[in-house]
């Protein structure tokens, strides 16, 4: 069955609202968001307004849909400027599940760490390979904040160390830490669904026996670690700074992300009283703050 695809160019301020309108008012069967580099946006941060740069919106319709009517409805919504940029294409029938899967490729972080979807061949069998599929919770490695944390973990000597993944999401950082040599990793998250995802992914990677998972209210008292990583958001990193610093043992290391470049210095200042802060690292407007206690 053929389809019609309408691609609109939007901004970070109106993309989500336009997507909702296309679904609710024009009868779009699906809506996909693409970033400025034509890469599908798979990882909106949990609980945060999506911060895209230039964003393309791709809406899929039945081949019998009246495109003139759809474009008139979009115009009438007043969400886009008059003469808005758009493109209408006819698509042949495809195996859409396979098409979606094609967007995910093995990704390398640092010198030896790979994150690989289960349906792809492992590029370097002798490297450190984490098998992780997009699914239940935030974190598959495609977002800059996840990439920054993975690269930092890969740069450390984790042999025999205890690591805390504060806000563990899918478990990607926790599992990577184990595969990189950590003796024990503790994942903490406020979302029970994230703990389920972390547990399932750890089992797929054969490291479940080295991963302990807790809701904050259930974590052991006096919990400390050699290495702490927190890929969450700027607000919680500020609000929970005393708690996060308390998880790092003296001489231990901390890395934080989920922070925009405009927020990084302010967040870092909440940690300077107990931490020696490294130069802040930026990737696509997102930052990693790291340091030693």
UniProtKB/TrEMBL annotation:
<comment type="function">
    <text>Methylates ribosomal protein L11.</text>
</comment>
<keyword id="KW-0687">Ribonucleoprotein</keyword>
<dbReference type="InterPro" id="IPR050078">
    <property type="entry name" value="Ribosomal_L11_MeTrfase_PrmA"/>
</dbReference>
<dbReference type="InterPro" id="IPR029063">
    <property type="entry name" value="SAM-dependent_MTases_sf"/>
</dbReference>
<keyword id="KW-0808">Transferase</keyword>
<dbReference type="InterPro" id="IPR004498">
    <property type="entry name" value="Ribosomal_PrmA_MeTrfase"/>
</dbReference>
<dbReference type="GO" id="GO:0005840">
    <property type="term" value="C:ribosome"/>
</dbReference>
<keyword id="KW-0963">Cytoplasm</keyword>
<feature type="binding site">
    <location>
        <position position="231"/>
    </location>
    <ligand>
        <name>S-adenosyl-L-methionine</name>
    </ligand>
</feature>
<feature type="binding site">
    <location>
        <position position="146"/>
    </location>
    <ligand>
        <name>S-adenosyl-L-methionine</name>
    </ligand>
</feature>
<keyword id="KW-0949">S-adenosyl-L-methionine</keyword>
<dbReference type="GO" id="GO:0005829">
    <property type="term" value="C:cytosol"/>
</dbReference>
<keyword id="KW-0689">Ribosomal protein</keyword>
<dbReference type="GO" id="GO:0032259">
    <property type="term" value="P:methylation"/>
</dbReference>
<comment type="similarity">
    <text>Belongs to the methyltransferase superfamily. PrmA family.</text>
</comment>
<feature type="binding site">
    <location>
        <position position="189"/>
    </location>
    <ligand>
        <name>S-adenosyl-L-methionine</name>
    </ligand>
</feature>
<protein>
    <recommendedName>
        <fullName>Ribosomal protein L11 methyltransferase</fullName>
        <ecNumber>2.1.1.-</ecNumber>
    </recommendedName>
</protein>
<keyword id="KW-0489">Methyltransferase</keyword>
<feature type="binding site">
    <location>
        <position position="167"/>
    </location>
    <ligand>
        <name>S-adenosyl-L-methionine</name>
    </ligand>
</feature>
<dbReference type="Pfam" id="PF06325">
    <property type="entry name" value="PrmA"/>
</dbReference>
<dbReference type="GO" id="GO:0016279">
    <property type="term" value="F:protein-lysine N-methyltransferase activity"/>
</dbReference>
């Amino acid at each position: 069955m053929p389809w019609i695809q309408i691609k609109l160019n939007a901004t970070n301020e109106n993309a989500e609202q336009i997507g909702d309108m296309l679904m609710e008012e024009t009868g779009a069967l699906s809506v996909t968001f693409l970033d400025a580099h034509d890469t599908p946006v798979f990882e909106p941060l949990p609980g945060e307004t999506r911060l895209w740069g230039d964003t393309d919106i791709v809406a899929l319709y039945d081949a019998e849909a009246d495109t003139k009517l759809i474009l008139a409805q979009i115009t009438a919504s007043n969400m886009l400027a008059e003469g808005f940029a758009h493109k209408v294409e006819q698509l042949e029938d495809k195996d859409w599940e396979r098409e979606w899967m094609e967007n995910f490729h093995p990704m390398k972080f640092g010198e030896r760490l790979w994150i690989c979807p289960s349906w792809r061949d492992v590029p370097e069998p002798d490297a450190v390979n984490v098998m992780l599929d997009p699914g239940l919770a935030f974190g598959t490695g495609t977002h800059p904040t996840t990439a920054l944390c993975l690269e930092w973990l890969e740069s450390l000597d984790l042999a025999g160390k205890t690591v805390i993944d504060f806000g563990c999401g899918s478990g990607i950082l926790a599992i990577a830490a184990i595969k990189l040599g950590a003796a024990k990793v503790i994942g903490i998250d406020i979302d029970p669904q994230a703990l389920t995802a972390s547990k399932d992914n750890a089992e797929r990677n054969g490291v479940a026996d080295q991963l302990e998972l807790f809701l904050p209210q259930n974590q052991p008292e006096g919990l400390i670690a050699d290495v702490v990583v927190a890929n969450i958001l700027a607000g919680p990193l500020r609000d929970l700074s005393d708690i996060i610093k308390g998880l790092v043992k003296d001489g231990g290391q901390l890395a934080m992300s989920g922070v925009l470049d405009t927020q990084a210095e302010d967040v870092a200042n909440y940690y300077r009283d107990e931490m020696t802060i490294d130069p802040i690292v930026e990737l696509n407007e997102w930052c990693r703050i790291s340091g030693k206690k």
